[in-house]
Amino acid sequence: MLSKSIRQKIRSLQQKKYRQELGLFLVETPHVFLEFLASDYVLFRTFCTASFLDKIDLKFHDYVEVVSHEELNEISALETAHDVVGVFEEQKFQAEPNYTGLILALDEINNPGNLGNLIRTADWFGVKEIFLSPNSVEVYNPKVVQASMGSLSRVKIFTKDLQALIQDLKNQNIACFGADLSENNLFKSHFSQNQNALLVLGNEAHGLNPKLKENLTLLSIPRIGQAESLNITTAAAIFCAEFTRASETL
Question: How many CB atoms lie within 10 A of CB 203?
Answer without folding.
Answer: 18
